[in-house]
Amino acid sequence: MHTGSRDGSVVTDAVREAARRGEPDRYLAALLAPRNVRGDLAALAAVAAELSRVVQIVSEPMMGEIRLQWWRDAVETAARGERAAHPLADALGDAIRRHRLPVAMVHRLIDASSMELGTEPAAGEQPLDAYLEAAEATQFRLALLVLGQPGIAEQDAVISAAARAYGVARRPGRLLLAMHAHEASVACPHAGSDEGTSVPGGSPGEASDAAARDALAALRQEARSALATARAGMHMLEPASLPALLPLVMVEPYLRAQERVADPLRQAAEVAPLTRVWRICRANMRGRI
Fold first, then answer.
1. Which residue, 126, 139, 133, 128, is CA-closest to 49?
2. Strand locations in 123-256, DSSP E?
């Protein structure tokens, strides 16, 4: 079953379930967008969720990379108007063609998953920034394009700040530390490993975990600063851009949830579904983040 709209954008059951399970904030934001783009925004969220799921379920990085290569090929196939025989890839292809989304930008989402697997190094001297640009800023930018808001130079700082705030709030602590190791001086194992974290020159155990928690606390402060920067720059975006940025209202609840868990390295920081619905719907009604 699916719900439709005048321009053919639909939210199929497969898209709905993948987006709701893996990208609930962006899924809810999509449902609050204009009817004619809801399906396309949900498709973007569903594909991002599926790419993250690939990283989570594979036991070997190269097995994950094989799956990601399938997605690279599927994106090219779907963008040409050919069916990929996969409901999420086909929905994404429809969105790409309908809104003329840059295929290279979609590939950046896949590259972010490769960074998580470790099969593609994050470029530059700031791996965490490179990762969050690929994983989060790309999603914000694609959503803005679907909403008919072409990127302008003035938006770049806002989107980058939004990506850092939301990414740090939402991504697993161990992944953040792995990307941030050169700055925090904390070495973190692959997310699938049960080994403890370690600090160069130190020994595993309580001291290294304490250093990791300190590094995460510093990242949370950076996230709050980035959120303030993003909010201060919202005036440069058109009101029609709001659905793309609605997930930002969940940054503070996620950060507070991280602060409450006993072990932010290994425990997921979640919020109550009703909190998500209330905060996102309220921001949408008020017209501001």
1. 139
2. none
> Could you tell me the residue range of the domain that residue 109 belongs to?
1-120
Q: Is residue 195 part of a domain?
A: no
Contact 5, 32 (CB under 8 A): no
Q: Is residue 38 part of a domain?
A: yes
Find how far residue 230's CA is from the centre of its chain.
16
Answer whether residue 282 is part of any domain. no
Which range has the worst mean pLDDT, 52-66, 184-198, 237-251? 184-198
Helix (H), strand (E) at residue 11: strand 11-12
Percent of the chain with pLDDT over 70: 84
Question: In the chain, how many domains are there?
Answer: 1
d(CA 89, CA 240): 26
Q: In whole angstroms, what is the distance from residue 171 CA to residue 17 CA?
A: 20
Euclidean distance between CA atoms 160 and 173, whole angstroms: 20
Give the up-direction half-sphere exposure of residue 123: CA atoms within 13 A in the CB hemisphere: 5
| Both tokens assigned to 50 | 């599926």
Cα–Cα distance for residue pair 171/145, rounded to 1 Å: 24
**Structure-model confidence comparison of residues 142 and 201, the more confident one:** 142
* Alpha-carbon distance values, 103 to 52, 76, 84, 183 (Å): 19, 7, 15, 32
Q: Round to whole Å and give the CA distance between 32 and 168.
A: 24
**Residue 94: how many CB atoms within 10 A of its CB?**
18
